[in-house]
Amino acid sequence: MSRLLIVAFDVAESSSLAGFADALGIPFDLLLLSAGVPAPIGAEKVFLAGMPSIPVADAMAKALARFAAPYTHVAAVSSMRSKDILARTAGVLDAAMVTDAVEVLGVRKFKRPVFAGTVMATVEVAPSAILLTVRPAGFEAPEPAPNGPAENVVLDADSMAERSAVSARSGGRPDLTQAKVIVSGGRPLKDAATFERVVGGLADALGGAVGATRAAVDSGIAPNELQVGQTGKIVAPDLYIAAGISGSTQHMAGIKDSKVIVAINKDPDAPIFEAADLGLVADLYEAIPELLAKVKS
Amino acid sequence: MNILVPVKRVPDPYAKVKPLPDGSGLDTAGLKFEVNPFDEIALEEAVRLREKGLPASITAVSVGAAECEEQLRKALAMGADQAILVETSDALDSSVVAAELAALVLELGIDLVLMGKQATDDDANQVAQLLAAKLDWPQATFASAVEVADGRVVVKRETDTGEETLSMRLPAVVSADLRLNEPRYIALPGIIKARSKPLERRPRATEAVAKVRVVFYEAPPAREPGRKVSSVDELVAALKDRGVIA
Ligand SMILES: Cc1cc2nc3c(=O)[nH]c(=O)nc-3n(C[C@H](O)[C@H](O)[C@H](O)COP(=O)(O)OP(=O)(O)OC[C@H]3O[C@@H](n4cnc5c(N)ncnc54)[C@H](O)[C@@H]3O)c2cc1C
Ligand SMILES: Nc1ncnc2c1ncn2[C@@H]1O[C@H](COP(=O)(O)O)[C@@H](O)[C@H]1O
What we know:
The complex is a heterodimer. Helix content of chain A is 25%, strand content 29%. Chain A is built from eight helices and 16 strands. Chain A has helices spanning 18-24, 57-68, 80-93, 192-205, 214-218, 249-252, 272-275, 284-296, and strands spanning 4-8, 28-34, 46-51, 73-77, 96-101, 103-106, 109-114, 119-125, 130-134, 150-152, 161-168, 181-185, 209-212, 239-243, 260-265, 278-281. The relative contact order of chain A is 0.12. Chain B is of the alpha/beta class. In chain B, the strands form three sheets. A nine-stranded mixed β-sheet of chain B has the order 11-10-9-12-8-1-6-7-13, sandwiched between helices. In chain B, strands 2-5 form a two-stranded antiparallel sheet. Chain B has a two-stranded antiparallel ribbon with strand order 3-4. The site of adenosine monophosphate has 23 residues of chain B, from helix 1, strand 6, helix 3, strand 8 and helix 4.
């Protein structure tokens, strides 16, 4: 019998895979690793691990492998953390690993982007347990439904690594992967202060998150966790404003699930205009202050 | 100390790759192939560790068809001491590659595997983790700084929310992210000069079979074509019209 375990690292993730579970159409349970109350998604059973922090991948994977052994499917929202941990769990279980599933075609058949999202691949999995990281944007969330009984579980594990110097730089803005509005900046933003003033200023006025290109991150204009794209965050806001971004394949890979893409670029031939719903050919240093003034009024 | 750097042959990441009309594969005609950019970064890091005084022998390995020799020659030119091609025409997935790498790691007495976090063709981001799990070694993915001293490797790694540092006893597996370093440029003469370095071809060591197979390739759904607006006022009006700003 097929059975899915949804692994939510935190409460925010607990509702993200309801649409995926619905599409897969097999009975499912929910494992919430951090402390908190999970969203009602119609899980048959809920397991609460109440972990104060998520252990290093080797330890987390060992514990997860023990817990997930009875399941045919184990899924988590795509993130750097879930890729780190679930792929290792797949190794421990000698299970199949599917990264970034965006569509369910059958219990063993999924669609996923390859080549920075310029090609979609349909993958078929041989009979073995399947671990998946899933991009929720493509799945329609069903109506909330009450979960079955909850049970506290202990997932204990020792890591071979020592973790230190953890930095989490969140300036009170919404999380990029959850945000409804994102304002992103590229290479022409000069320096961190300019980036924060121009891009951050507009984002705050719109109640949104801030993103950046690799070029901006590499040159120290923006911190690494803001990178959007093939090798950064995959985002799916209602509104994505790209300012001073050329529109490389690698950047576009991260934003194509956005509902409305706005490009502000002074080069009328920039590739970003091919993908943007609304394009404004303008100097961002003039257009953004004007836009800011108009959305504030 | 023995360092293993797995390198994958991938189509030029800046080229446009198209599915074949019948979806059975990819149109590779006229495509240039390169060393996966993240593997170049991993190799560069291995070479820099040696240049900083770590006595290290660096082996580059590729699992795949005979053509991978081209990328292994590049790896030798960048500073690998020897290269191994595990030659096969079998269908590969991450688990098969990890099984082959694990066998090689044990045979060669590897202390540190430095590899890419992700191949830019399959975008899988799996092999490092699968390999570390198989070997039951500690892992640090998404590395942005690597130091080796006193039998340990200390890795600064990128996370969803910032950075953290992991200190691990060797042996260990480390996967490289973009900001670990900028690989040196190797001109063609350098690649020719590296011809004298040893490159061994050998068959597969395991019978692992792919668990995940691609059965169809297609273009992603196209977005509705957009339009240009001529002023900020028009932009604001269009955004209000679509209900994405108040
Ligand atoms: C393996 C690999 C992975 C990668 N992963 C990612 C990734 O995850 N995310 C990512 O973003 N990139 C990634 N890249 C890099 C990517 O290829 C591009 O180099 C990068 O996205 C370019 O960033 P940019 O648009 O800021 O800079 P540029 O390409 O330099 O574009 C800057 C744009 O700003 C415009 N401009 C300049 N001044 C102004 C002004 N005053 N007002 C308005 N417009 C202005 C210019 O016309 C230009 O179009 C990756 C590359 C590789 C090889
Ligand atoms: N066929 C291969 N031969 C050698 N190394 C590989 C191969 N496939 C993947 N790798 C290594 O595994 C890393 C991650 O690849 P992937 O998990 O496929 O995204 C790559 O950056 C390489 O270092």
